[in-house]
Amino acid sequence: MSTSKGKVFVIGLDGATFDLARTWIDEGRLPNLAGLMREGVHGELASTIPPISAAAWASFSTGLNPGKHGIYHFRQHVPGTYRQKIATGGDRKGKSLWRILSDHGKKVIVVNIVMTYPPEQVNGFLVSGLDSPGTGSNYTCPAELREELGQAVRGYVIEPDLAQFARRDRYDLVYRNIISCLEARNAAVEYLLDKYEYDFFAVNFRATDLVQHHFWKFINEAHPLYDEAQAREYGHCIRSVYEKLDRIVGELLTRCDDQTTVVVMSDHGFGTDSARTVYLNRWLQEQGWLSFVGGGDEGGGLRQVFGKIEQGARGLLRKLIWDFARQHAPQGLKDLLKRELPDLTNTLKSPTTYHAIRWAQTVAYSDEHRSNIWINLKGREPEGIVEPGAEYEALRDEIIERLRTLHDPETGTAVFSEVYRREELYPGQQVGVTPDIHMVLTQDPLYVSRPSRSAHGSGSVATLTPKQLSAGWLISGRHRPNGVFVMKGPGIVRGRALTGLSIMDLAPTILTVMGHPVLDSMDGRVIEEAFTSTPEVRSEHDDSGEEPSSNGGVYSEAEEDEVADRLHGLGYI
Question: Is the whole-model pTM more than 0.70?
Answer without folding.
Answer: yes
